[in-house]
């Protein structure tokens, strides 16, 4: 979960757990200038605690960025509202669920 520096809007980045997100790549591809979102910001704006933010069901619509590396898996696991719960889905389900866009975003 990130915060867009100019608009202060929450931005959801769904990345493969094996990847580290490269903010410069995201900025180059999308024009978004991302900064860290602290726990209070995430809970207030999105409705979930950090570590438990699911891909859908947020307090407000979120711009969502999807890691292209997720496409190499048949099934993936996503947070399900708490840091202790996950659910299984196919990577192809992410785009229609989130209206997200796929970009190469790993370091």
Helix content: 10-25%
Order of helices and strands, N to C?
EEHEHEEEHE
Apparent shape: globular
Architecture, according to CATH?
Alpha-Beta Complex
Query: How would you name the CATH homologous superfamily?
Result: YbaK/aminoacyl-tRNA synthetase-associated domain
Indicate the low-confidence ranges by residue numbers: none
Query: CA-to-CA gap between the ends?
Result: 17 Å
State mean pLDDT (0 to 100 scale). Answer: 96
Instruction: Please tell me how large the radius of gyration is.
Output: 13 Å
| Major sheet size, sense and barrel closure | 5 strands, mixed
CATH class: Alpha Beta
Percentage of residues in strands: 25-35%
Instruction: Tell me the structural class.
Output: alpha/beta
The count of domains is: 1
Number of strands: 7
Which topology does CATH recognise?
A: YbaK protein
Biggest sheet strand line-up: 3-1-2-4-7
Number of helices: 3
